[in-house]
Sequence to fold (117 residues):
Amino acid sequence: MEFLRAFAVGGLLCVIAQILIDKTKLTPARILTGYVVAGVILSAIGLYGPIVAWAGAGATVPLTGFGHLLAEGTAVAVGERGFAGIFTGGLCAAAAGITASVVFGFLAALLFRPKQK
Fold:
């Protein structure tokens, strides 16, 4: 059942993004940025936490989950370090994911060479 909930929520987020791409003049970059900001806003008002608890990876893997991670990390860091936590919390919380992205991107660039068409 957990997999079904994750698939449903993650799929719904993808469907919304695809509709925005098809029906509006928004660029994919703006939609992706909007998803991160939406995750931050939904976390700040307390709505995204219950979605994450219910959907698991279906809510944490998409970009809205990245925004949620930044917001939660900042909130924790502000509680621990005060004002300085505003600047350090989001990146500390997301450091493992950012590092993994850089490392795997680098490995993919080494292993697979693109060819000119």
In short: The mean pLDDT is 92.
